[in-house]
Design goal:
Shape: globular
Largest sheet: 5 strands, antiparallel
CATH topology of the largest domain: Uridine Diphospho-n-acetylenolpyruvylglucosamine Reductase, domain 3
Number of strands: 13
Strand order of the largest sheet: 4-5-10-6-7
Number of helices: 11
Radius of gyration: 19 Å
Bound molecules: flavin-adenine dinucleotide
CATH architecture of the largest domain: 2-Layer Sandwich
Distance between the termini: 33 Å
């Protein structure tokens, strides 16, 4: 089965964009290939790509850097690189926890954060944490380099703002967790069968300087809509509340009453998924509070 005619490995973003332009829509960006090649094989590969543009040799896309309290993760950084980063484990723990549960080791070794976002499924695990981190994407879109809020990258299920036959996702940038801030991610999967998450939840919280009260929070729970969303009512209700188990319990109930997951034959019934919203909000908020209060941060649930 032939999947492509030509394969290019540009060394810079300029070179990648030039190649995409030269093929005028007949070439597509590839990173780890864990989504693209699986989809192509499922189609039967009857229409091979004229060219694939492999972006994993572009140094700018492979780096994790920190500058002025902002962390930048290249779009070509693999899930394994993320899991192994001490900087991310400490200051963007939810991202390590979400990338650490993607597929198995083989998928994590080649699958990238950029591929997770460009594939544009609202349930992407890396995506959920990037939304909780309020990340911005650095993109080359219609020939222009710009930064957009992560949620603007999603136009619908599997529909990205970017046309990966013409545009390039370069990196993601977000503020690293400061003192009194912490993040956490948890996911609920079916124990067997189709490996689709029932729900995933990423949270970011900031406590006040006494570490007893919420100052701000972001909760990303997915998949609930066609694009990644946040639990706005819960985020607003948390501000000024004591960082206690009682507050967590109220927020779990609020999330259950304000978010409306639908029944999916591949995931679970709406009723079960609503129950799981409560479970996830309790687990992630409790963990994030513990981290923000104690500074004791060890990523949980990360696969070997
Ligand atoms: C067995 C298996 C298990 C999986 N389990 C999970 C899971 O648990 N959770 C999860 O979220 N995902 C899972 N996935 C999906 C997949 O592994 C991830 O979404 C992964 O992050 C995709 O990255 P990639 O580098 O392989 O993307 P690719 O397949 O290379 O690309 C995916 C799409 O993004 C585009 N693209 C890639 N990089 C760029 C870029 N820099 N600029 C523009 N466009 C780009 C490509 O053109 C393509 O359209 C699984 C996949 C498999 C095969």
């Amino acid at each position: 089965m032939k999947l492509w005619n030509h394969y290019h490995t540009p060394a810079t973003t300029d070179e990648a964009i030039e190649l995409l332009a030269r093929y005028a829509g007949q070439a597509q960006v590839i990173a780890g290939g864990t989504d693209l090649l699986v989809d192509k094989r499922a189609e039967g590969g009857y229409h091979p790509h004229e060219a694939l543009i492999d972006v994993t040799r572009i140094p700018e896309l492979r780096q994790i850097t920190t500058e002025n309290d902002f962390i930048t993760v290249g779009a070509g950084v693999t899930h394994t690189q993320i899991v192994k980063s001490p900087e991310l484990a400490r200051y963007a723990t939810c991202l390590v926890e979400s990338c650490g549960v993607v597929g198995g080791p083989q998928v994590r070794n080649v699958g990238t954060l950029g591929g997770n976002v460009a594939h544009a499924l609202p349930a992407g695990d890396g995506t959920t944490s990037l939304v909780a981190l309020d990340a911005e994407a650095d993109i080359i879109y219609m020939g222009e380099r710009k930064r957009v809020p992560i949620r603007e990258m999603y136009l619908g299920p599997g529909k990205s703002l970017l046309d990966s036959c013409r545009d390039l996702l370069v990196s993601f940038r977000f503020r690293r967790a400061a003192d009194c801030e912490a993040t956490a991610f948890k996911r609920i999967m079916r124990p067997q069968g189709v490996a689709l998450p029932i729900l995933g939840c990423g949270v970011w919280i900031r406590l006040d300087e006494t570490r007893r009260q919420f100052e701000a929070a972001r909760l990303a729970i997915a998949p609930i809509g066609p694009t990644p969303g946040r639990a706005d009512e819960v985020e607003h209700a948390l501000i000024g509340q004591p960082a206690t188990g009682e507050t967590v319990e109220r927020m779990a109930e609020l999330a259950q009453s304000t978010l409306h997951p639908r029944t999916s034959k591949y995931r679970a019934t709406a009723g079960y998924r609503r129950e799981m919203i409560g479970v996830l909000v309790r687990r992630t908020l409790t963990l994030a509070i513990h981290r923000a209060q104690t500074g004791d941060i060890v990523p949980e649930g990360v696969g070997a």
